[in-house]
Amino acid sequence: MSLSRLFVDADLAAGVEAPLDEAQVHYLRHVMRRADGAPLLLFNGRDGEWRATLQSRGKKSAVATIGERTREQAAEPDVWLCFAPIKRARLDYLVEKATELGAAALQPVFTHHTAVERVNLERLRANAIEAAEQTERLSVPEVRAPVTFDRLLASWPAGRRLLVCDETGGGPPIAEVLSGLGEVARGAPWAILIGPEGGFDAAELAALGRISSVMSVGLGPRILRADTAALAALACWQALVGDWQHPTPRLDADYRTSRTLV
Q1: Spelled out in words, what is the top-level CATH class assigned to the domain 4-73?
Q2: Domain segments of the chain as ranges
Q3: Per-position DSSP letters for the chain, written without gaps between them
Q4: pTM here?
Q5: Which CATH number fits the domain 79-245, given the four candidates 3.90.190.20, 3.40.1280.10, 2.60.40.1120, 3.40.50.720?
Q6: What is the CA radius of gyration of the chain?
Q7: For 188-220, what is each residue's pLDDT tens digit?
Q8: 169: left (phi over 0), alpha (psi -120 to 50) or beta
Q9: pLDDT at 102 over 70
């Protein structure tokens, strides 16, 4: 049975009691059937990952008593995923998989052809947290409030490169562009921008073309759905620029044991 792994906001250090929210207590007690003293793993995106034990503080409250650290916090690639919101089920899937793929920030963008008018940020953040907990990621991506396309470009930070997936054929293949980058470009902060199902309009493409840090790329001969395009582009970026260039770390015997309840 897998060891329960939770994201918390509290600072983590040996001997500290980290409060658990009501939803986490319900999950541990009534879904996972964990009793007092049950071992846990906690992370907060700052202090690495820690062993802990569950301790009740009443019928609906509990804390986690922190033990030893299992993993140090590690730096992650600085890549944002900017995307036009899509229908709820597919948006949930996009956020979950983008978290697994290592996006540092998730930025919804309302473009001219965006059909969805509202975004439930609490739901998206909950999806991101759950994905990080389940995939042993040490951080949770920042889930940002939606902005308009014009506002995104007007406030674009200097030095952050923007990879635009252009379904009109306005850019070379993504692998050709990313594999040909120099060391300065590889070490820069990045973002990936995906348009809505209807694509960017002509004015938006023209505005993107006026930004020096923008690189337009294509994603092959087929027109991809927005969620597929976002995840495909992020996977290509991680493989050719990001941390997929490094080998998967081998887990030592002590850590493997800590992840399993016998």
Answers
A1: mainly beta
A2: 4-73, 79-245
A3: -BPEEEE-SS---TTPEEEE-HHHHHIIIIIS-PPTT-EEEEE-SSS-EEEEEEEE-SSS-EEEEEEEEEE-------EEEEE----HHHHHHHHHHHHHTT-SEEEEEE-TT-------HHHHHHHHHHHHHHTT-SS--EEPPPEEHHHHHHTPPTT-EEEEE-TTS-S-BHHHHHHT--HHHHTS-EEEEE--TT---HHHHHHHHT-TTEEEEB--SSPPPHHHHHHHHHHHHHHHTSGGGSPPPPPPHHHHHHTB--
A4: 0.91
A5: 3.40.1280.10
A6: 21
A7: 999 999 999 889 999 999 999 999 899 999 999
A8: left
A9: yes
Which residue shows structure tokens 């759905």?
A: 225
Both tokens of residue 58? 């009443």
